[in-house]
Amino acid sequence: MVQRKNRAAVDLLVQWQDCSQEEAQWVPYEDFIKKFPHFDLETRSN
């Protein structure tokens, strides 16, 4: 969790396809699910 505008927010560490772990990016959860609404995070987590 991070703080954004004095509120708790969740960020996801995303390793995009064809990118290295070093290129992984922190993406706000809300932005991610808006862009990829059908992505199943539960089956993709390790």
From TrEMBL:
SUPFAM superfamilies per the UniProt record, alphabetical: Chromo domain-like (SSF54160)
Top-rank lineage group of the source organism: Eukaryota
Protein name: Chromo domain-containing protein
Gene source species: Iris pallida
Phylogenetic lineage: Eukaryota, Viridiplantae, Streptophyta, Embryophyta, Tracheophyta
